[in-house]
Amino acid sequence: MKAFKQLFAEQTLPGTVPQGYDPELLFVECKKCGAPVLWAQGQASQILASAGVDPLELDASCVLMSDGCPACSAQPQYTVQIYRIEGAGHLSAAKKSGSA
Q: What number is the average pLDDT over the span 38-47?
């Protein structure tokens, strides 16, 4: 129990974001029109797994950006990239991408 409390305390220090994040909770946005993109349950996990992304690499600063969406494009599928929101709302591209 003591080890758990220490681990929990390390993950929740002020100013830090705990590592490991449910991929289904990631925000998905269309880069083309800015609309939020809604996916079926499990689709984010499936896309990230196929791109080789470990959920332990994710945190609350990660967002998924699609190169289109049904609202602005008639494509049958879209490329998705992972971004991290850095200070002052700036995005930095992650290394991996997949298809939705």
A: 90
pTM: 0.66
Sequence-ordered list of residues with C-beta below 8 angstroms from that of 24, at least 6 positions apart, any chain = 41, 42, 44, 45
Residue 3 lies in a domain: no
Instruction: Tell me the average pLDDT across 49-67.
Output: 88
Sign of the alpha-carbon dihedral angle for 26, 28, 29, 32: positive
Sign for the pseudo-dihedral over CA of 28, 75, 31, 20: positive
Let me know if residue 12 belongs to a domain: no
Count structural domains, the chain. 1
The Cα 4–Cα 40 span in angstroms is 34
